[in-house]
Amino acid sequence: MSNQLRTPVRRRRLGALAAVVVAAAVTATGCSSGSSGQQQDESAPLEVWIRQDAGSPAAESAEALTKAFTEESGIEAKLVAVGVNDFETKLQQRTAQKDLPDIVINDTGQLGNLVTQGLVREVDREGVAGSGDLADRAWEAAQGYDGKYYGVPFNSQAFALLIRKDWREKVGADLPSSWDELTQLAVKFTKEDPDGNGKDDTAGMVVPGGTTRGYLTWWFSTMLWSEGGDFVKKDGDGYVAAVDDPASVKAVEKLQAMFCDSKVVQPGASTADSATTHTVFESGKGGIYLTGPYMLPRFDGSLGKDKYEVVAAPPGAGGEAAALAEGENVYLMAGSANEKGQQQFAEFAASPAGQKIGLGLDNGGIIVRLPVNTTVDGAAEREDPRWDVFQKVYDEHGRNAPALPNWATVRQISAEGLNGVVSECSRDVAGAMGELADEIDAELEKQGATG
């Protein structure tokens, strides 16, 4: 997830500027057979960007991926690991310099931003070698509002519950079978001294409830959908806000109650990001954490794998389980001098060979959390059945964010609206969600995404 510009005029100016810059970049060298008009050279090297910190195990896995591609194809590929917090800034700088990288491996949630700014090429799904082996849900996350594809799937994930098993046994509770029971378990973890230290210092639910990069929306999506609510819903050929629908309002009321009534969330939850919540869980201060599979190696080391269990999030009042599905795509950036090489890289990254490198079995650098290639069994490769829980959640209950022209902006607006009702306990939820719905509808209209 990434920071979003919240000023509509500024967003429009940036999009217009980027489109002009890219147009200039892709036509500067004259006419040719490239889709953008860029002169093509099938031996031209590729610059590959990935959203990872340089020197990290994940960057090492990405380096191994690019080297394996070069050995396979004969095309030189250079990896650039761009830090998580600097990625968007540096990409915009390169846009202004009319010098985009050839490949960007980035979040599925950034697809709308990239398409709106004209920074990526359309992908012919059927023309991608091995496309039939890639999960349909992963392809869905590479699809834009217009129904076209703008990336090749590379990595997927879904979210499940990490529950302190030792705490659950200490308070004598069963695994929850509904979100209401999950909240009841959180109450026990908060009030019944599950760690046995005689202090009132445990939180039942660990929640990244801050607004930075839309974290609260990101976390709440799974709960909201399970409770039968939604942020937006289809309306003819477009979308309309759904946060003020009755099921959504009830879900937000339950969220507010976690913060304000039962007070099962950790102190400071309304301003916390995931870096903070990771620490809360692994330090033994929180008992239930809805997060992704990428945290297992860290928590195994810091907390101990015997201390917690991995469980699919249960159904809510909506009667069905749902879980946020995310991932990363390989984006073929506009203006490349080697479009054929771009596609070859994407195909290799999504192939069984590329996916297995991304699992990070040799160095722990996980850049493929759940394989998008259905011929690769990630849990079997890792010899860890807990990963299969996440895979089944993704396959059976995973749900991508809606394919809006720019979902990231709606996510940010939603996070701010939700944060208002958990930070101010006296706020009327129905009224606040009505106001939020108006904001979302206004944003949808700006994006041209209304029916």
UniProtKB/TrEMBL annotation:
<keyword id="KW-0732">Signal</keyword>
<feature type="signal peptide">
    <location>
        <begin position="1"/>
        <end position="28"/>
    </location>
</feature>
<comment type="similarity">
    <text>Belongs to the bacterial solute-binding protein 1 family.</text>
</comment>
<keyword id="KW-0813">Transport</keyword>
<dbReference type="InterPro" id="IPR006059">
    <property type="entry name" value="SBP"/>
</dbReference>
<dbReference type="Pfam" id="PF01547">
    <property type="entry name" value="SBP_bac_1"/>
</dbReference>
<protein>
    <submittedName>
        <fullName>Sugar ABC transporter substrate-binding protein</fullName>
    </submittedName>
</protein>
